[in-house]
Amino acid sequence: MTKPSLHEFKVLHSSFNNMAKKLDDLISNYEALHLQLEEKVAERTAQLTKVNESLKQTNERLKQLEQTLREIFENIAHDLKTPIINLEMA
């Protein structure tokens, strides 16, 4: 087996340095993308929380309106039945 030359060591050294630089670049890119993703998730979570709260309020308002309508219709039904009962008794 032949002894590696100085040139081969320089090529190997250069290759390792290039590989290390590429890995550093990839890691930096990954970290930047990770931060962007976290920001988007936080932003979307805030939006969804706001929309969810709005939906809860709307749902509660609809329940109140439904109850009000139910009471109105019950009163109307009662008012319509009262004259009929009075006519039947007469």
From TrEMBL:
<keyword id="KW-0808">Transferase</keyword>
<keyword id="KW-0418">Kinase</keyword>
<keyword id="KW-0902">Two-component regulatory system</keyword>
<dbReference type="InterPro" id="IPR036097">
    <property type="entry name" value="HisK_dim/P_sf"/>
</dbReference>
<dbReference type="GO" id="GO:0000155">
    <property type="term" value="F:phosphorelay sensor kinase activity"/>
</dbReference>
<protein>
    <recommendedName>
        <fullName>histidine kinase</fullName>
        <ecNumber>2.7.13.3</ecNumber>
    </recommendedName>
</protein>
